[in-house]
Amino acid sequence: MAAALVLVGLSVAAPTVAQAATTTTYSLSAPTSVRLGSSATMKATWFTRGTGATGTVALQKYAGSTWVKVASVKLVAGRGSVSITPTATARYRLHSSKHTSAAKTVQVVRNWLSLGPTSASIKAGSAVTLSMRLTLNGKPAAGNVLLQRKSGSTWVTVSRLPVAATGSTTVVRPTVTTSYRLARSGVVSLTRTVTVDRDWAALTFSSRSLPSSGSPTTATATWYAAGKKANGTITLQQRIGSGSWTTAARIAVTDGTGSVTVKPASTRAYRLLAGSTSSPSVTVTVAVVIPTSFTINGSGFGHGIGMSQYGAYAMAQAGYTASGILKHYYTGVGVAQAAMPTAALSVQVYGPDASNSSYDDRTTSTSATVHGGGWRLRDNQVDPETGKAGSTVAYGTSTQTVGFKVAAGGKVSATIDGTVVSTDTVLRLHWKSTSYYSPSTTTDIYATVAGAQGSYRHGRLTVRNIGGLINVVNDLQLNTEYLYGIAEMPSSWGTKGAAALQAQVTAARSYALLKYQGGIKSSCACHIVDDVRDQNFTGWKKENEGTDGYYGKIWKKAVDATVSGTQGLLLTYGGEPVIAHYYSASGGGTLNSEDVWSAVVPYERSVDDPWSLKSTSGNPNVTWTATLSQAAARSYFGLPDVMSISVATYEGGGIRAMKATSSWGDTKTITGKSDALRSKLNAIADGYVKAPWIRSFKPVLPG
């Protein structure tokens, strides 16, 4: 062993022979094989009593019968390495003056096969390309090789393939996870495994970038189950932003493929789902998003001409008088006591109206019941004792129902307990404690009419046959008895704002007086009707409202506060009574009469109305919303779609025009009177368009 390496400069004290045998580790690690032309890293370790040595040792190779040095290995803290390029199989060891490691044999491989890639993952039905190289004597070579796959524990030849010196490729399509190798004359390559996903789905679209909402695109599904092309139904899901996945469609798949056309309203992601199998998501962008609907934002309730009732209530709480309230809402009017008619005002409470059939009571019979006291029924014949029309045909002292029915010859008949008691052109029902029969204010006797909305404490009921239909009128005093029954404003407001009730009474009186002065209408044998065509009249229901008539008394007190003897507080313009329109609440300003309907009324001018919007008004309609669908908007404006709707207004804020713009830039403007535009919108909207103060149409986007 003449070539023994002398250890140079080691910092570890030399141990005795006995110590070295028990406390020193001295070893070489090396690869078992290396390809010809490739390098091999040889690693050395030297530790004595747990401390690593620092210095240099020799790496030796056994050549023939002699160990020769091939490299020096520098050790630091007991470890070191060196790279060599062997040309033949040989044995190697470490050597120093006192130590020699065990020998390691490094085999030099001269011939080998290469198969790539090192790993691959595909979906069933897909292919993977394998690269092949042949090396002989360390140099690229051409020749034939065997491509093999593992079946159980056995390698099975798939094909015999030629390989060029520059390398070649082959394509495989495994249906299950498969391991491959190359073989030639006892030389085999490393094993390469191709992992196969047997259950998968993929989604594609004919276009993933759409110009606008509703544009079509075709979604195509590819679906494999258990490694085979699937047949069945797979779910197409959609998600907007970070929202939840929802079902967009179901796709019928045949032989692994199916499609469906979708029209996304906005940008969204899609994926396929079948059991636990899902596809990667695919995003379809929509450049122009068309609203699904529009939220109509509005304010107020009613037509907008004249007095706002909620506004009047807020003004009353702020200290305004009834006169001050009326003069605010009606331009240039006078408010003063004036003489009232002593003859009766006739109010239709049940019967026909040719001008508005939606309010008709078009029947040939009804009945009236007197509650709580005496009554009498009179016909239209001359009383021989008084010489006046009206003879008593029946009477009673307690609750009684009288049936009325249309009779031949334009007459009407009355029936009590199944017996006809009179037939005449006119029949009248009186009850005690009225101006027509034993006047008194101490008893609460009243009448009701089947099908009518009110009950009647004052006056009398007059029954006629009008055009073959039964007609019932309540004849009573305009200045007090009629106004006691006007149900146009909450009586409870009188506890905080009595002036508002008095303003309402005055407006109602002025309206009724003009109707009285217009004379009896033949269509109803009346001056005025009891519903919103004129004024809402419920009679005793209003006057007796609340427990023990608590609220009714408040309302009656407000009426009485506007009465002075036979006079009543009246609203006039140019000295003449006016038809004073009123409504629930404005949207911040009242409207000119001609902007809502047609005629210019000089005292019904637009005025600011902040009172309707004050919190003290209690107005529940300071804001409200309704919905106009995209379909309704398209139809209404006659456009292919509607992207936006802008609003133009009259003085006071009532809607004057609506301008719609389509996604193509086309526009359509619809103009008209405020109430007509409101009515048209209300007919096509979801929800109630309550008033002409429409602030905006807010687009509601998909999702």
UniProtKB/TrEMBL annotation:
Protein's UniProt keywords contain ATP-binding: no
Superkingdom of origin organism: Bacteria
UniProt biased composition (Polar residues): 355-369
N-terminal signal peptide: 1-20
Keywords: Signal
Chain spans, region Disordered: 355-391
Domain Sporulation stage II protein D amidase enhancer LytB N-terminal: 470-573
Name of the featured protein: SpoIID/LytB domain-containing protein
Organism: Cellulomonas edaphi
